[in-house]
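Task card 7
Instruction: Convert sequence to structure tokens.
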Amino acid sequence: MKKTSILLTSLTAALSLAACDPKSAESIEGSTAENQMAAVEEEQRSSPLVKLDGEINGKKVFIQYGAPSVKNRELWGDLVPYNVVWRTGANEATYIDVSEEIMVEGKALSPGKYSIFTIPKENQPWTVIFNSDWDLEHGHFQYNEKNDVLRVNVQPVIGDNFEEVLSFAIGDPGIILKWEKMTLPISIQ
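Output:
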């Protein structure tokens, strides 16, 4: 009871001070609400949002993606169907931001932000797509092929190492996507 009374008194005092300056009250209110919403959203995500910075041959690269887990599910050909556009991650579309022109599998990609989609294929190279609609809330559900900027084919490698959580890495040969036993090495110069 005593703790509740002290808490209410402190809260009332803080609100009274903030009310004296409406501008301060708005910024405190907005900031607190935004921070709380962001924290709640992150806690509720079953596929955490990952932000990755790096360099390839001195060119800055940023990648943002939702990182789903395998969770004992059959991935290839089931959860992620073959021959269908996949958002290559979870939740919103995965995107890349490049500071300078890069060569992806020998083809030029201008500086800018691009969503990354793939078309997984069984026993064949996958199609990797860079699309100018980079800020898509619902991944492949909003995908529009008309906005494809670049498509390249990349051969996935199936190995023995098991990756529970989908991950991207920036390194040799460029961008490396790993999930389950699959590695997709996208060559970038």
